[in-house]
Write a structure and sequence with these properties.
The chain contains four helices and 15 strands. By secondary structure, the chain is mainly beta. The chain folds into two domains: 2-176, Beta-galactosidase, Chain A, domain 5 (Distorted Sandwich), CATH 2.70.98.10; 180-213, no CATH class. It has a six-stranded antiparallel sheet. Strands 8-7-10-11-12 form a five-stranded antiparallel sheet, with no helix packed on it. A two-stranded antiparallel sheet has the order 6-13.
Length: 213
């Protein structure tokens, strides 16, 4: 019974020609994630039959301008980041199964795998190359444990000679409006020169006005 329970808790892996599918169960909820080698990221995030992604998440480098930005000409000095935000190229994909890196399992490499592949943990890392001059890279790594939790780590490499970076993060576009928002992290002003004064907090907002979503 213990062996059967452990096998049931493992992630089921589907090695497609252009995708890696991961499915499993967390309590009463079933989840199914799809990573695409063509779009370069997480293509589908489905929980109990409901899709939570409208398009593949990608790094974001641009934000809305402020009056101070316009006054200082920031948008003219750093405008190249707007292009980098709109167009980015995935140049490398790495897949790790239970901590061990495997050759990218696309066609025809995926022929070595059966329909009964499983694992306790899977990590998929994407490296992107920006089109701004000089070029630099960004890596985004997804780690999925047997409970279906997805841990996302995004890292901006940076390079000497680049204009000031407006913002760095990830853009997740969902197919429906959100009813609430949960935030865990630092509060207050946490720019590099003030980060030491930030406090770890957890907030939950509900019933947003539609104009804020």
């Amino acid at each position: 019974m213990e062996h059967a329970s452990k096998a049931q808790d493992q992630l089921k892996l589907i090695y497609g020609d252009c995708t890696l599918g991961i499915r499993g169960r967390a309590g009463e909820k079933e989840f199914h994630y799809i990573f695409s080698y063509q779009t370069g990221g997480l293509e589908s995030l489905c929980i109990d039959g409901r899709e939570w992604l409208f398009r593949t998440p990608k790094p974001v480098f641009w934000r809305a301008l402020t009056d101070n930005d316009r006054g200082s000409g920031f948008h003219l000095k750093s405008g190249g980041w707007l292009s980098a935000d709109m167009f980015i190229k995935c140049v490398q994909i790495e897949v790790l199964v239970d901590g061990k890196e495997i050759p990218l399992p696309k066609a025809t490499e995926n022929n070595r795998y059966s329909q009964d592949e499983s694992a306790e943990e899977v990590a998929v890392a994407f490296t992107y190359e920006t089109i701004i001059n000089p070029q630099t890279t960004v890596s985004v790594a997804y780690k999925i444990d047997s409970s279906g939790k997805i841990f996302v780590n995004a890292e901006y490499k940076g390079k000497k000679g680049l204009p000031e970076l407006p913002v760095f993060g990830m853009r997740f576009v969902m197919p429906t409006k959100a009813r609430g928002y949960c935030y865990e992290g630092l509060s207050g002003e946490t720019y590099p020169d003030r980060k030491a004064g930030g406090e770890k907090v957890s907030f939950m907002w509900k019933d947003f006005p539609s104009r804020l979503i």
